[in-house]
Design brief:
The protein has two domains: 153 residues, Rossmann fold (3-Layer(aba) Sandwich); 132 residues, Tumour Suppressor Smad4, CATH 2.60.200. The chain is 22% helix and 36% strand. The chain has a six-stranded parallel sheet, with helices on both faces. Strands 9-8-19-16-11-12 form a six-stranded antiparallel sheet. GO terms for molecular function: ATP binding; metal ion binding; NAD binding; NAD+ kinase activity.
Length: 297
């Protein structure tokens, strides 16, 4: 391994020790380090000058990079995925945030994680991405999402109506606060909070999940990723929000929107001993029923 990229957007004092540990250990392995421009500005602000060979802010800056470390929470990981895009650089999430469904390596595991990376003791999980098609350039060409696409009402305005079509055929008009289309990776994110199912990452499915639907018989729907899902929006308000993961833009009802599966994937690094099911048990406290322990012993 010759070159490693690092992205982070938080160098709070409580996390600085772990950030410095990453740089020190990578330097000890003789690895060249490049960091994101945003991360570089943060480090300059606190007068920390690590030994780096350059910075990056776009996919073509990552040519020749072996892997990327995302240091933060799941939001940082999602941001890293939008930087990597089609370069397919594998990403390992080191969790200095909170829950961590994507950034699954704890800060206390940094030493063992880097040791495993250098020894090649890991697997690459390929995660599907959503791609947004629109008649306007809402996101400056970065039209992908690892977790979800969402259409939402703004602020405290009245509910909206999202007319939804699958491969050109009318599905439903959702009277709701919004509508989410989630990937399997995003099934443990926003979709889960509105009653959507947990979907294993290897599934080739999208989840269409309404947010606070007015019709109580409306439920989340799972559709194949070969589907093209299109939308028309209407409501009393003239403006709505469209989001890709944590990025959002204001739109009006004249916009044309559709989502489909992206033609490339996001490669997530899974260290030996880790798994999606293990993450579910740890993050959602599955299996914590006292009866499991009584039966075991």
């Amino acid at each position: 391994m010759k070159r490693v990229a690092i992205h982070s957007k938080d160098v709070a004092e409580s996390k600085l020790f772990f950030v410095k540990q990453i740089f020190t250990e990578l330097e000890n392995y003789g690895v060249e380090i490049i960091i994101s421009k945003d991360f570089d500005r943060l480090l300059h602000a606190i007068n920390f000058r690590p030994n780096i060979v350059g910075t990056f802010s776009a996919p073509h800056h990552l040519i020749g990079v072996d892997l990327m470390l995302s240091v933060g929470g799941d939001g940082t990981f999602l941001e890293a995925a939008t930087i990597v895009q089609h370069q397919n650089v594998p990403i390992l999430g080191i969790n200095t945030g909170r829950l961590g469904f994507l950034a699954t390596t704890s800060k206390e595991q940094i030493h063992s994680a880097l040791e495993s990376l250098m020894a090649g003791h890991y697997t690459l999980d390929e995660r599907i991405l959503l791609e947004l098609e629109s008649d306007r350039d809402l996101f400056k060409g970065v039209n992908i999402a690892l977790n979800e696409f969402a259409i939402m009402k703004r602020d405290s305005s009245s509910m909206i109506v999202v007319h939804t079509y699958i491969d050109g055929e009318y599905l439903n008009s959702y009277w709701a606060d919004g509508l989410i289309v989630a990937t399997p990776t995003g099934s443990t994110g926003y979709s889960l909070s509105v009653g959507g199912p947990v979907v294993v990452p290897q599934s080739n499915n999208f989840i269409i999940a309404p947010v606070s639907p007015h019709n109580l018989n409306v439920r989340p729907l799972i559709v194949p990723t070969e589907s093209v899902i299109a939308f028309e929006i209407e409501g009393r308000s003239k403006n709505f929000l469209v989001s890709l993961d944590s990025r959002s833009r204001k739109v009006d009802s004249t916009i044309q929107l559709a989502v489909r599966r992206c033609n490339y994937t996001c490669k997530m690094i899974r260290l030996d001993g880790d798994s999606f099911l293990k993450t579910l048990r740890e993050k959602l406290n599955w299996g914590m029923d006292i009866r499991n322990y009584l039966n075991r012993y």
